[in-house]
User: What shape does this take?
Amino acid sequence: MGAEEIKKDMDISSWPSDLAYEQWVALPVSGAQPSARYKHAAAVVDEKLYITGGSRNGRYLSDIQVFDLRSLKWSSLKLKIEPNADKSEDSGLQEVLPGTSDHSMIKWENKLLLLGGHSKKSSDAMIVHFINLETHVCDVMETSGKIPVARGGHSVTLVGSKLIVFGGEDRCRKLLNDVHVLDLETMTWSVVEATQTPPARRFDHSAAVHAERYLLIFGGCSHSIFFNDLHVLDLQTMEWSQPQIQGDLVSPRAGHAGISIDEMWYIVGGGDNSNGCLETLALNMSKLVWSTLTTLKERHPLASEGLSVCSAVVDGEKHLVAFGGYNGKYNNEVFVMKLKPRYSSHPKIFQSPAAAAAAASVTAAYALAKSEKLDFPQIINVNLNGVENNVLKKDINIEIDAIKEEKKALQLSVEEVRAENSRLREKIDELNSNHTELSKELQSVQGQLISERSRCFKLEAQIAELQKMLESLESIEKEVQILRRQKSALEQEMELTAAQRQGSGGVWQWIAGGT
Assistant: This one.
């Protein structure tokens, strides 16, 4: 399975019915198309795909593009400034909605809310823009409370009337793993003080909410590591956990896109800066099971980082709608996948094994107590004869015995879990002991390192002194060479003078002899 080629002859009016289930198809587009991009934000409202901002060749984009899923045509949305807004420039659209990438966009009532992102327009705190879909007015929403630091590559998830922001990367490239909540009724920010072990600091991850209670965080990356882990924050107890996952193996990735529909969470694209992820994944959030819907070909546009995926209902059927991304090439195609109808199961409550076994044991014991207290003869005698009474009594006794056996089994499970917890505690104690010994060894090594550093400093000082002495010896040697040359020149001059004297004495002697 993979992706079908673009159907140029597709009947626009009936394209949804022409699609096969769980197969990516690139829609044919008539007219002008928006510039290819990645790290944009997207949302589907009333069968229209809205695309805001993004990045291309290092340039931040600020345009708003709309794709009509019926006519399969693109159009640009011309924004207006709030009439009563006090702006320093009349033409300050760039000031209201600057070019931004790595931001998030959520539909709330009749507005699109844009949160955070990276932009040339710096800000210390996270800014929330809004676009009114009826009036096309765009402006900044005033918020109060503990406003989170400005960031990009974060996740934003809508739970009731609250937005949950997790992680990301601030303007100084500092990685984050904090949780903030924006109450859309009061526009007030608050910080979540969660317990247990949170996910590692990361950005370009994905997030989803299950059963209006559990916040799920998947994948993303730090500056050196790509993740494939799944973390869950219980929004009632505010506790982090990392549940066991079943199903297909999932490769580490960042820059992927995710969207949840009922109990299914769909993950598309992503990569590790070297290779794009070819598989489209689905996580059953009730059963915590990964499955692969389809696998794409190498270098497919959807095997990209920084793409977007949304959900849309067309002709009563649910579809995934993907756009953009970068895998060595910027993409601006629109891909759709028609999803098979699924039936929702009961939401899964994320518990530890001990808590789950204890809860089951209590439930069974309660049911047994209730059944033993019932006045069975009084119930059985109503409209029944004696034979039927005996049959029902036997059936009920069998059920009671079965419940008792189940209770015993659950009690054994609880004891096994307790034993396992005891073994884990022993391992933890052993690890703590090893940690203490390693800490002592580390301190010893650090002490040795300090002494070695001191020796190095002394040696460096001695080397510096020797270098100075060597430099002075070099200067003395130069002076000696100069003196040697002077001595040699003086000796030559003396020899020349002596020779001249000898020559002049011989002439006078010759003259004297001649006379």
Summary: The longest strand covers residues 59-68. The first helix runs from residue 15 to 18.
